[in-house]
Amino acid sequence: MKKVVHAACPHDCPDACGVLITVEDGRATKIQGDPAHPVTRGFLCAKVAKYLDRVYSPERVLYPMRRVGPKGPTGPGQDTRSPQVFQRISWDEALDEIVWRFRGITEEFGSEAILPFSYGGTLGVLNGSSMDRRFFHRLGASQLARTICSMAGEEGLKSVIGMKWGTEPEQFAHSRYIIAWAANIHGNNVHLWPFIEEARRHGAKLVVIDPYRTRTAACADWHLPINPGTDAALALAMMHVIINEGLYDTEYVSRYTLGFEQLRKKVQEYPPERVVQWTGISVADTVKLAREYATTRPAAIRVNYGVQRSERGGMAMRAITMLPCIIGSWKEVGGGLQLSTSGAFGLNREALDRPDLMVKALGRPARTVNMVELGKALNTLEHPPIKALFVYNSNPAAVCPNHNEVIRGLQRPDLFTVVHEQFLTDTTDYADIVLPATTFFEHKELQTAYGHYYVQMSHPAIAPLGECQSNVEVFRGLAERMGFEEECFRESVDQMMDAALTSENPWLEGIDRVRLEREGHVRLSFENRLARNSPQFSVPGSQSDFFLPFAKGNFPTVSGKAELYSESLKAQGLDPVVEFTPPSESRHGEKAKAYPLELLARKSDNFLNSTFSNVPAVQRMEELGLLEISRVDARVRGIAGGDTVRVFNDRGDILLKARVDGALQPGVVCARLSWAKLTEGGRNVNVLTSEKLTDLGNSATFYSVLVEVELSKPAS
Ligand SMILES: Nc1nc2c(c(=O)[nH]1)N[C@H]1C(S)=C(S)[C@@H](COP(=O)(O)OP(=O)(O)OC[C@H]3O[C@@H](n4cnc5c(=O)[nH]c(N)nc54)[C@H](O)[C@@H]3O)O[C@H]1N2
Ligand SMILES: Nc1nc2c(c(=O)[nH]1)N[C@H]1C(S)=C(S)[C@@H](COP(=O)(O)OP(=O)(O)OC[C@H]3O[C@@H](n4cnc5c(=O)[nH]c(N)nc54)[C@H](O)[C@@H]3O)O[C@H]1N2
Ligand code: SF4
Ligand SMILES: [Mo]
Predict the structure, then answer these.
(1) Rounded distance, CA 587 to CA 633, Å?
(2) 590-713: which CATH number, 3.40.50.1000, 3.40.50.10800, 2.40.40.20, 3.40.50.10440?
């Protein structure tokens, strides 16, 4: 029996691909991109193209297990059933033990001593956030602020335009000037690339603003290697040129923006001649960039989250978001800006997550712990201390900043840790109980996106391997054992999908589960709102096929305008217009005397955060354990390519292999994220990163890190 099943890739990636899985006699035999999906266009990224290796890996966790050995690394390739470390137990035993421990901890310390910890393992609507939230809300557990990735950028963007809406990927084919601003398109967002290529065939220019020479930068028309954390300064200098030379859209600005005169005044502080000291981009290049951007139509900015992983990331995003608002490029197909599209889906999250259950349980909202500060929380939090950690959809022992502190916390013998996982990761090395999780091949799911506007249905292709269960089923089982009586814990997957799609959002009109099951993917129905609810949205002629949310203003902000001046920032004690301050952990800060190099603790092009690090077919595409360094910085330290180097600061150190290949300017080094236990010494780049939070959104600052590098031993 052979069949082809429609699924959707749920990994934490803007592309949210439509996927076709061929199944023969119950076994998946082929995976391919859905040719009918307008953004996937029939191809997958290199890592998911190898997904059968991941699903059927001999290292999959297949049964619940209880720790019998000491906490700590087991090493790669350790047999999941190794009797020295873990003992196989039944689901009944596992769930009973969790419930028994949770009850005991609640009695002694209160329910807030329990902390859920999840992030982007799956962005599936249900398995990302639904039954789990209901369970922890009803339990009265501490809340987790899920800030590790995108909150600074989200806050910066929303401070100007109000919502996470942006230019749809298909429109980039119509652009004539494209800025990839901190956007590693080839590595992290590869399905945007064909649209950019199409635009370039029609003469578009691609400019990349990135301190690192990514593959995208290498094939761009112009690469501007900006110094890390200085993007707000560059955007301000661009606006200085655009405003002072009268290159802005006077009509758009006067009708649809608020605070332009304050901005005009503010940018006078940032002439290109002053800003060059921070950005490292010459005056001539800054002026040229500003003029070209303002005068080549249509011009689109693909800004990605790289820009906001620095101390002032929120302001940086705010400054960049102002650019399309002053040149009025929101009016044009192929104009505007995209950071994220996720704000348009507007599912009924209340129905899925049931925050009301928390207030019912505690009589108030539970305390919130910021996931970026996991190390600090595990080691220092009191009243109550964290006594139980339930990890799913995440690998905190690899992805959290200040790794050494996180590990110190996870090692606590009095901390009861449960990890629901597909593999024995860095985090399961500290788990008391490991539960086996399904992959997207094995469960039904609803999928949205943060890089396009299609809702998808993901059908299960194969039966769960071993005794694997989805997140939804695990938390349903736990709720039952806890004796939670609310009806919502008994809802089926289909009922939950129906609830999610029953929302006030007019763009979901006509999109229901049955239609999604039939069609696989459906574009949000923007025309509904265009036609009826907001006539001012509609755009004449052929352009109505495209989503142009701000063509006629209509910003979903308090004022209804693009807020170049923001009362809410003022209330937070921040500059209500926009400003630039160099990050304290940068070449301009005090610490640079001891640690003079700026480290970009980047993602790997072929892994997904730490996911895929352990799949041999994917490992072959990505060399692990590298430190990339400029020739100048290598030479003064006596370092040659291939040497083992020690990279260190006052938080930790790590041994890496030097690569000296011109990808970086002097002063900046780079190392990549992977499983810690795959690197020498069992540590990863996050031993060097800090728990310092961003200016807006309390996000992580993975790209504001100072280090020093020394030769450890020459290449043999
Ligand atoms: N292959 C692959 N794809 C992924 C991921 C992955 O790990 N691997 N991760 C997924 C996730 S979770 C996310 S959030 C998205 C993120 O996607 P991106 O936002 O593209 O992610 P980053 O790689 O963090 O940053 C993009 C670029 O910003 C650059 N950069 C760093 N600091 C600065 C700066 O101060 N200014 C400027 N202008 N550029 C800077 C980096 O060198 C990098 O090339 O990608 C997703 N897709
Ligand atoms: N140094 C450095 N650190 C970073 C970053 C960086 O650029 N540099 N990026 C940061 C960013 S942007 C992000 S988003 C975070 C990502 O942090 P995480 O979301 O923790 O990312 P992953 O490492 O991909 O770990 C996800 C885990 O979930 C598991 N998983 C997948 N599907 C399921 C499922 O259905 N159920 C369960 N129970 N588990 C599942 C996977 O096997 C995997 O081990 O990392 C952050 N950390
Ligand atoms: S990781 Fe991204 S590019 Fe790769 S298949 Fe999934 S959604 Fe597509
Ligand atoms: Mo992320």
Answers:
(1) 14
(2) 2.40.40.20
